[in-house]
Write a structure and sequence with these properties.
Helix content: under 10%
Strand content: 35-45%
Number of domains: 1
Order of helices and strands: EEEEEEEHEEEHEEEEE
Distance between the termini: 73 Å
Radius of gyration: 29 Å
Number of strands: 15
Length: 345
């Protein structure tokens, strides 16, 4: 029987059940995931204070956790709707709903070139810079967030979701430095006590955009999940060399996507086929310790985040049915100043 059993009164002769029943189980031959890691690195010293390191770093993940619907509905041409999903289940339709199977059915791989330049502290200056070029591939980038969640567009064909990982960032450059300002010997007390003894720190990060997964926003294959993708009918990539207002209004070519045809189960747009906005950020800080007595001091610190007030856009809306499809509606924080005063004793 359907409907809610609450408030529930137990009747041993005529117990009430709510159908369809959802269930969870561990897949057959359940084992242990594992990761194989490998790397090859070359280091070269440059002078007395500098070094360069170049390496290939990779890994292969096997038997990763996935969750699929083992009782996914059958598609019946002309008779499939969003309201009769459970009546089209393969096993005991109407009695069982989704049967969520946790299995070790996913593989992933990541390959990267990693370079690091180091300048040890000398003459009051040190530098650490790193560049990484990488590519990560999988069929699902997140563990199941719920015991009743399916992340695949087709639980019986997981290969449809094989693509670059949702966290894949192909290019990342970062640099950090420390500079101890030289002692000022001019201007008497002002030079010795106010202008001397400062330390400047900084960090800069530049990265490419993250993958964008365009979804339909509706259950186009009538399987009870709204993670389907639309059709790709053109080139979705637009030039990034456009005025900022145009980037915000339409980050990618929205006309390149179309609703799936009648009777078509899955759109031909792949997972994560677009790349989001890149980002560049500079942070710096300066601090100085002012001695008060032999065992007491005051430390002043100033931090500036996003020094150049760079506009770093968030990812655009990627839901085809949304009125904001293709639009950027948010950005990272603007320039922020922070000051601190600490008394040490």
């Amino acid at each position: 029987m359907g409907g809610s059993p609450f408030p529930y009164t137990l009747s041993a002769s005529n117990p009430a059940f709510v159908r369809p029943v959802t269930a969870n189980y561990l897949g057959e031959n359940f084992g242990t995931p594992y990761v194989q890691q490998y790397n090859f690195t070359v280091q070269q010293q440059i002078g007395h204070t500098m070094s360069l390191q170049v390496g290939y770093v990779g890994n292969a993940s096997r038997k990763l956790y996935t969750q699929r619907d083992a009782n996914t509905p059958l598609y019946i041409p002309g008779s499939s709707t969003s309201s009769n999903v459970n009546s089209r289940r393969q096993y005991l339709p109407g009695t069982f709903g989704a049967i969520y199977e946790l299995e070790l059915g996913a593989n992933a791989s990541c390959n990267s070139l990693q370079t690091t330049f180091t300048r040890r502290l000398a003459r009051g200056f040190s530098l650490l810079a790193n560049y990484t070029w990488s590519r990560s591939i999988d069929i699902l980038s997140d563990d199941p967030t719920s015991i009743s969640a399916v992340g695949f567009v087709n639980s019986n064909n997981l290969a449809l979701d094989r693509a670059v990982s949702s966290f894949n960032v192909p290019h990342v450059f970062s640099a950090s430095w420390v500079w101890e300002a030289p002692r000022v010997t001019r201007w008497g007390w002002l030079g010795r006590e106010v202008l001397s003894g400062w330390q400047l720190d900084g960090i800069m990060t530049a990265r490419a955009g993250q993958p964008l997964n365009v979804t339909s926003g509706s259950d186009t294959n009538f399987d009870g999940n709204t993670n389907d993708r639309p059709n790709l009918v053109g080139n979705p990539v637009l030039s990034g060399d456009r005025p900022r207002s145009q980037l915000i209004a339409q980050y990618f070519n929205t006309a390149a996507f179309a609703t799936v045809s009648a009777g078509q189960l899955y759109g031909n747009a792949g997972r994560n086929i677009l790349q989001g906005p890149a980002a560049v950020n500079w942070d710096i800080s300066a601090f100085k310790i002012f001695p008060v007595t032999e065992h007491q001091a005051v430390q002043f610190r100033a931090d500036i985040f996003n020094v150049f007030n760079q506009v770093n856009f968030s990812n655009p809306n990627t839901t085809f049915s949304s009125g904001n499809f293709g639009k950027i509606t948010a950005a990272a924080s603007p320039r922020v100043f922070q000051f601190a005063l600490k008394y040490v004793f």
